[in-house]
Amino acid sequence: MTDTALMTDRYELTMIDAAMRSGTAFRPSAFEVFARRLPGARRYGVVAGTGRFLERLAEFRFGDAELAFLREHEVVSPELLDWLAGYRFAGDIRGYAEGEAYFPGSPILVVEGSFAEAVVLETVALSVLNYDSAVANAATRMARAAKGRPVAEMGSRRASEESAIAAARAAYIAGFRATSNLAAGARWGIPTMGTAAHSFTLLHDSEAEAFQAQIDTLGVGTTLLVDTYDIEQGIRTAIEVAGPKLGGIRLDSGDLDEVAAEARALLDSLGATETRITVTSDLDEYAIAALQASPVDAYGVGTSVVTGSGAPAAGMVYKLVARQGDDGEWVGVGKRSEDKASRPGEKVAVRTLEGGIAVEETVLVTDDPHVLEQAATRGRALQVPLVERGEIQERWLGPAGVELARERHTASIDELPAEAHRLARGEPAIPTVFR
Amino acid sequence: MTDTALMTDRYELTMIDAAMRSGTAFRPSAFEVFARRLPGARRYGVVAGTGRFLERLAEFRFGDAELAFLREHEVVSPELLDWLAGYRFAGDIRGYAEGEAYFPGSPILVVEGSFAEAVVLETVALSVLNYDSAVANAATRMARAAKGRPVAEMGSRRASEESAIAAARAAYIAGFRATSNLAAGARWGIPTMGTAAHSFTLLHDSEAEAFQAQIDTLGVGTTLLVDTYDIEQGIRTAIEVAGPKLGGIRLDSGDLDEVAAEARALLDSLGATETRITVTSDLDEYAIAALQASPVDAYGVGTSVVTGSGAPAAGMVYKLVARQGDDGEWVGVGKRSEDKASRPGEKVAVRTLEGGIAVEETVLVTDDPHVLEQAATRGRALQVPLVERGEIQERWLGPAGVELARERHTASIDELPAEAHRLARGEPAIPTVFR
């Protein structure tokens, strides 16, 4: 069952039901997705998941199975069931382009429609954006710490099976080069990689037989995993079997800094000076940074990237910021509770640049019809149209959307000041200013 | 695309390809899922995801779309494509019943089949078990810390959209009472809950109008969210509108200990002595334990449960532990690398009890044909048949399987010594002994 429309918290439907009764369900409304802070006291965040959210939106329909469930469990009234049966989002959505950097308070997504049609998207929008952005937030730091050496995502087994595919996509957008996950290749066009695990060596009667079988099948350019028994012997066997033109070796255990240096020296002494070294054991952005001076050619990252490296959810929220009253006047609205207050009013955002470097995230409340024109003069506009009168903009979807997001990510982080790339906890790289 | 068969790391297929060439691909083999340690230095773990894994296994087929992708990208040889087209798992799988407690080294799942048919399940098995168990590992502590007060899962928006459904299921197995996620209700029969968010209050011209609409629709037994503006005023308005028979109020901000006490006193003073208090702001097992003396009636937990409360992946691995040689003899195999060694040989496990209390996780290597009989005399057998000659045992599937897992969880943790329920980091509650 692809029950996207039930990827929804029950209270969204009970709210619509009650609002239909009070006559407020169809008040024109605006919801905003934003983050109160950057997780893990990082210096910037990366928006990811937008394309996936739009694909979920395209299939967000209450079909017979979904309606039957809601009817049988008396979740909502018969009137609401009728309305849900015809549900199609017909409003507007604009937001930060996927791959764009964001900061606390950035209006990442603005959903305009009736209260009913917009509130029902709350859970699915946040699920997608919070997970995918958590991965991208971690991946961007790892890719940057690798300083041009390629990083591959191989954490599928440490995330639930659908998250694994989303993680591969988000990591690729944020600068990774490839993934081990075949479904991510099939769905999103992401390059896939991988050769063999320890079980392959253990299956064979000797390490040499395993290596020979791999080379016979994948060619001498393949990467051999050399640490099943003893690394030094494994490398010697690898070169004996493959010759000095072996493509690469992989190291998946031990003190990688030390092990990589020894492996490099041994490979060189065996004439395998072009054989590349990939390391893959429990890496995160800090471990990658610490290996900067080591003779490592490529990294494979698993658990830490798919779990957001200590911040497994990006902490974005979906808040009603404005709605019309019965008099047709727009009213900015926001919670006043002490630790979770929200800022009323629909917003647009520009990144203010000086000499090509970002200096401020400028957020303007759109209570003035000319604010958009004013905004354009202040810097680079950050919101793009995603859905117009219910029509999803195609260019953000599928593999093409992923490539667009990857390009946006590169351009966006190149614009950030140098402090943005410090790994230590700290303040956002630029301030968010509400003007 | 429900491409379960591509929820697979590329190297699994390249290994089969190379093993077909070396003539080892169809050696009878046994893979084992186990965890080297308990994440977060907890006292026990909870197996979750088994039923979901079996449902994924049932649909694990390389169809036209999957084969076309593999062919176009030249991932594997034409011979392997032919084999994949006919792939059906025809082996045996036994394992810990879903909901069972586990410890370091527990042989949670044993997959027996040819190398090829078993290795290809590595990623999907680990993805499901690692995520679902991470959630259950967190949820069991929260449910226990709540000491009988009901706990509901409401973290869908903090997990990716399919993980959210799996999380609701795992939390329910581990003792939660309900979820906000409608899809979890539809797919797995889990009770759903939820009434209204702050946006519902903000949509209306006054808090009183919002409360009135909710009561008109959901009845006076509903739960009103009272902290949109001012909690004291919110509670007064709630009782004015609903009368003293109001079912409940929800508090989602502030110092919950203090706020709950003030709310209880105010409700009592207004005659609403039976009105229940639900709290829902950033709770985890420690916060729940700290609210033990507070007049709280129910908890709602979001981020921390769906992200494993600091341990977002359970750290289980899938290792080849035994395989036949060409002579038909079984050989126990294991990695020897220093930090990731694995213990060779197929295993069975029993929980050794004294006076009904667990004292040891006893793991026996099955190199002796009588070991299973011996095991039965030592304690409670932990592995149950899940798949027999390719046939998935129905009782673990669907909503019925979830209820069975929930019962197993209760029985299993009731058997653990009292130390098991300490929240502080420490050693596993019982030792794992290999005999």
From TrEMBL, chains A, B:
Q: What keywords does the record list, in alphabetical order?
A: Ligase, Phosphoprotein, Pyridine nucleotide biosynthesis, Transferase
Q: Which domain of life is it from?
A: Bacteria
Q: Which GO terms describe its cellular component?
A: cytosol
Q: How is it modified after translation?
A: Transiently phosphorylated on a His residue during the reaction cycle. Phosphorylation strongly increases the affinity for substrates and increases the rate of nicotinate D-ribonucleotide production. Dephosphorylation regenerates the low-affinity form of the enzyme, leading to product release.
Decide whether keyword Ligase is in the record. yes
Q: In which pathway does it act?
A: Cofactor biosynthesis; NAD(+) biosynthesis; nicotinate D-ribonucleotide from nicotinate: step 1/1
What's this protein's name? Nicotinate phosphoribosyltransferase
Organism annotation? Agrococcus pavilionensis RW1
Top-level taxonomy: Bacteria, Bacillati, Actinomycetota, Actinomycetes, Micrococcales
